[in-house]
Amino acid sequence: MPFRSADPSVVKSITQRVLLNAWLRAVRTPDALPMLCDFHTEGSADERADMMGFDVEGSGDAARFMITQEGARLTTAYGNEHVEPRLRTNRYLDDAIGPERYAGVILSYRACLTRKRPTYTVAEVTDADGKDVSYERLLLPFGRGDSVEHIIGSYKAISIEGGFRLRNLMGVTPKSVPVITVRAVIDRRFVPADRPASRDSVELI
User: Fold this and answer.
1) What is the pLDDT of residues 28-86, one digit of tens each?
2) How many Å apart are CA 7 and CA 74, to the nearest integer?
3) Can you tell me the distance from the alpha carbon of 65 to that of 57, in angstroms, rounded to the nearest whole number?
4) Is the distance from CB of 151 to CB of 112 less than 8 angstroms?
5) Per residue in 129-148, pLDDT tens?
6) Of 38, 71, 89, 167, which has the most beta carbons under 10 Å away?
7) φ and ψ at 147, to 5 degrees?
8) Reduced 3-state DSSP string for 68-106
9) How far is residue 167 CA from its own chain's centroid?
10) What is the largest CA-CA distance in the chain?
11) According to the lineage, what is the superkingdom (predicted)?
């Protein structure tokens, strides 16, 4: 599925909308990248536990993503609780989640890098109890000039069936293989959404 052009209304999550709006406010001139120092939100420590930060090293297909922040609950979702907290940062994303999972997510990161605009994806997955869960990923690029130097990621899981099992939801051996239903680059002006965002959710990677 190719990435389609979209406006901010494609994002379902209220929390992710807030982050996207903060990114848009940080943009100083049209078509420019905002700098990380201009990105300001009122996010709580609890919200940061559901986000990740990356430094971009290299460019193009050779680019790698060094983890500078890893939200605690994301560790549970990927079944990486055995990794000591001090070792969860200052490592590359591909090393942290392994080649199989990396192959499934890298297109979102590369699109963010090459298009220099936020990318948003939704994948459908099943938890350990067989409940359907929508997994949403929002990636926000930052840098100077036309070079992406940092990416902030917000990750959210939503189930219309209510509570669900977070543990190993996106692990090496999940209950089901994620099926991508939305791939978007947010490069168009804002159009109000015509649907409310679900509140029955939990943040993830």
Assistant:
1) 887 789 999 999 887 656 677 778 999 999 988 999 999 998 776 666 655 555 666 66
2) 27
3) 6
4) yes
5) 677 778 899 999 999 888 99
6) 71
7) -110, 120
8) EEECHHHHHHCCCCCCCHHHCCCCEHHHHHHHHHHHHHH
9) 18
10) 48
11) Bacteria
Are the C-beta atoms of 68 and 55 separated by less than 8 Å? yes
